[in-house]
Structures are given as structure tokens and as C-alpha cells.
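Run log, item B.
One chain of 74 residues. Sequence copied directly from the ordering sheet:
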Amino acid sequence: MKLYKTVPYAGNLVIGKDDKVQEAIVDYFDVIKQESNDGWELMNITPVSVVRKDGPNKGKSEPYNIFVFVKEVE
């Protein structure tokens, strides 16, 4: 049997004019390293749009990435 877990993470990486993209992407690797323990393996990274409701007919879309991890159990 397999177990699954999801970990949300920011969908947009914001960097300054003189920053390097690679440095911002390293944060993704940190999430993977942190969560890949005790038999958990990264299966997929999926973009998800979340709408935060500001009122009855208004909402603000926020992009996220969902890291999906899988683990085999007996």
C-alpha cells in the first residue's frame, strides 16, 4: 500500500534585479530534502491556484506548488 502527503509551497519566486534565479530555486531543493525522510520520495510537483475570498463575489488568486510525496508501507 502507498501513502501520500502533500506540502504546499509558494508558486511565484520573487527575486531582485541583481539576484540569481538559481539561488531562489534552491529553496525548492530544501523542501525536497526536508520532506524526503523516513521513506518518503518526491513523486510530483503540481501547480495549484488558490482563491482567497475577499467578499461574496470577490477573490484574489494565489499561485502555489504542491509537492506530492509517496511512501510504500506494508
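Observations after the first pass:
- The domain at 2-72 is CATH 3.30.110 (Translation Initiation Factor IF3).
- The CA atoms of residues 2 and 72 lie 5 Å apart.
Flagged for discussion on Thursday.
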